[in-house]
Inverse folding.
């Protein structure tokens, strides 16, 4: 990567605690503006009577990718509300900059395009990754070539045209962990991207361990309420400038309303995440002691996700939950459960899925903010359920087995 960084002002944040940054970062100017809540700027265009001045600003953006001084010209270049979220997330991750996108996948796409535009199309990646990330890398949609390896194989897999190494830790959906510092060492001068969606900056800040690029599906914990989709990349200003150019050219911008909701979500992120993590740790302890469960996956790092393998039919558990919502995604205030082999990782080739530990009996639960006793009661009744399928009003055919499935007649428990 090249020169632009020398012009970048140092943005090392003052030493404020994460919980303080979460509620103040991106809002520092509000009191002086006479405001308390951040304003939402929905403009798609910005008037200017000075076209010569605009031409210069556009040239500056096109050559450096640095943020414009003054209004954005057009909403595909930048947005002040979204910029507040970017500022705040960069502070939480301890990076100079962050660039927000319409979704986590739009963010990953921009990273891959930014590297490919430098002639670096080869990616080294460690499975498992989120199913669609795996698909984007492997399907060749962006002309990316991927070498899959384990953490120990990274340095051998790196080639002269390798532009990126990608890991997810804890990984979706097995919660497998990689040692970021060791992996960063193996990467040498190739940038390491860590998908930090599952840990959030509350648990881990990958740049402190040598990662160059941190990716989030902001749809998950950052938003935190299951009602906003977004993605964000936290990184140094040099790479951020490149990402802004890609975002401008390809259009995967975050809507300002989503930027507002994500900034609002960050304020409660530490409190939400710690509360949900405490419940997840307790559920993982109880599941580990439960004879109906073959194996529990819970990260040493902690977190609010628990995955587990059942002896019985996983589809029946999904069909039987009452309080927990049977749905893909994670990081909402309410608890969600899904069957990765059917949904989140369906798009991954079955052999690759199995080989990376995503077996057919694995269930992934995103623990929310309900009382842990109520969650446990719901899980227990679902695990014991002999009712094969709940009647669900849906236009789609149910994936789960019908009441005639052979093992529905066996007692599900013990
Ligand atoms: C959901 C998810 C993504 C993709 O994010 P979207 O916002 O759904 O596009 C990427 N990585 C991980 C770990 C995820 O869980």
């Amino acid at each position: 990567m090249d020169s632009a960084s020398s012009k970048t002002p140092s943005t090392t944040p003052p030493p404020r605690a994460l919980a303080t940054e979460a509620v103040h970062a991106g809002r520092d100017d509000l009191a002086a503006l006479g405001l308390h809540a951040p304003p939402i700027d929905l403009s798609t265009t910005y008037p200017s009577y000075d076209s010569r001045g605009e031409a210069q600003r556009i040239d500056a953006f096109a050559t450096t990718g640095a943020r414009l001084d003054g209004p954005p010209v057009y909403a595909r270049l930048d947005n002040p509300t979204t910029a507040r979220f970017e500022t705040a997330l960069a502070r939480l991750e301890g990076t100079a900059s962050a660039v927000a996108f319409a979704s986590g996948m739009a963010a990953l796409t921009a990273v891959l395009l930014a590297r490919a535009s430098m002639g670096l199309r080869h990616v080294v990646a460690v499975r498992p990754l989120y199913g669609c990330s795996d698909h984007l890398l492997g399907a060749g949609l962006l002309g990316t070539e991927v070498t899959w390896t384990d953490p120990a194989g990274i340095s051998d897999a790196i080639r002269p045209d390798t532009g990126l190494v990608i890991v997810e830790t804890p990984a979706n959906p097995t919660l497998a962990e990689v040692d970021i510092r060791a992996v960063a060492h193996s990467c040498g001068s190739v940038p390491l991207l860590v998908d930090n969606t599952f840990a959030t900056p509350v648990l881990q800040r990958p740049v402190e361990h040598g990662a160059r690029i941190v990716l989030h599906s902001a749809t998950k914990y950052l938003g935190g309420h299951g009602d906003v989709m977004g993605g964000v990349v936290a990184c140094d200003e040099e790479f951020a400038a490149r990402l802004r150019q890609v975002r401008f050219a390809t259009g995967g911008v975050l809507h300002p309303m989503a930027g507002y909701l994500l900034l609002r979500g960050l304020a409660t992120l530490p409190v939400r995440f710690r509360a949900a993590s405490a419940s997840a740790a307790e559920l993982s302890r109880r599941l580990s002691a439960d004879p109906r469960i073959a194996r529990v996956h819970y990260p040493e790092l902690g977190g609010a996700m628990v995955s587990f393998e059942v002896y019985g039919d996983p589809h029946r558990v999904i069909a039987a939950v009452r309080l927990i919502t049977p749905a893909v995604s994670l990081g909402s205030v309410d608890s969600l459960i899904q069957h990765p082999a059917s949904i989140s990782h369906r798009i991954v080739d079955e052999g690759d899925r199995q080989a990376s530990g995503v077996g057919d009996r694995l269930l992934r639960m995103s623990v929310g903010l309900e009382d842990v006793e109520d969650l446990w009661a719901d899980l227990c009744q679902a695990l014991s359920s002999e009712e094969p399928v709940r009647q669900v009003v849906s236009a789609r055919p149910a994936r789960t087995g019908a009441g005639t499935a052979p093992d529905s007649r066996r007692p599900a428990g013990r």
Q: What stands out?
A: The radius of gyration is 22 Å. Residues 270-383 form a domain with the Aspartate Aminotransferase, domain 1 fold (CATH 3.90.1150.10).
